Amino acid sequence: MAAQGARDQTPIDHIEIPVYGNVAADQIRLPRVPEEDETFDYSERTQWIRAAVLGANDGLVSVASLMMGVGAVKQDMKAMLLAGFAGLVAGACSMAIGEFVSVYTQYDIEISQMKREMMKGNCGNECVEEAKKKKLPSPALAATASAVAFSIGAVVPLLGAAFIGEHKVRMLVVAVLASIALVVFGGIGARLGRTPMVNSCVRVLIGGWMAMAITFGLTKMIGSTGLEM
């Protein structure tokens, strides 16, 4: 009986322990809790993200490059600030008008397409309801986003130069602040659109550096030829 009990007990120990261990290690999968709503369509943000990010980067790079170019031949702080402010106003107006015209063209095209579909389909009220549900681009929203974003980007180098009296230090501060802001704007755009953040930041930063360096270098070269400024 003792031997029989030992034989009966052995397979129980042999079966329970390894199988339980395998299940716990290899087969049990805890449900993954999503950090964010993965069903959200981030493409819906494309219109205003594009306008805002483009406006901010353009304002920052344009005004910073303009101020760097003026600073290459003029050490007067007033000249740099006036050039930067003129660039802010002109650029914001240009961005707003350009976005308004561009998006309004897209708006007219989509309206015309919906009208053609309604006439061709003879679907009456169903087509009207479907057209109301369709999201159309907003020219005013795109223009406002571009102008405001451009102004925000352009203010960064202006503020950096406004409180620095030493010319070389002022130029360095403008370049450093512009670089930091470029990384921030690139990161914001990547975060809102759920795209790779590092790639976005590096791409925007290198583009901004190239614009400032080219503007500074060409203006310095022209100024060194003896052209009256």
UniProtKB/TrEMBL annotation:
Primary localisation category: membrane
Protein location: Vacuole membrane
Reaction catalysis annotation: Fe(2+)(in) = Fe(2+)(out)
Record's keyword annotation contains Transmembrane helix: yes
Molecular functions per Gene Ontology: iron ion sequestering activity; iron ion transmembrane transporter activity; manganese ion transmembrane transporter activity
InterPro entries xref list: Ccc1_fam
Membrane topology: Multi-pass membrane protein
Keyword check for Hydrolase: no
Membrane-traversing stretches: 79-105, 140-165, 171-192, 204-223
GO biological process, one term: intracellular manganese ion homeostasis
Recorded GO CC terms: vacuolar membrane
Pfam families reported for this sequence: VIT1
Entry keyword set: Ion transport, Iron, Iron transport, Membrane, Transmembrane, Transmembrane helix, Transport, Vacuole
PANTHER family reported in the protein's UniProt record: FE(2+)/MN(2+) TRANSPORTER PCL1
Biological role stated in the UniProt entry: Vacuolar Fe(2+) uptake transporter.
Family in the record: Belongs to the CCC1 family.
Name this protein carries in UniProt: Vacuolar iron transporter
Organism of derivation: Rubus argutus (Southern blackberry)
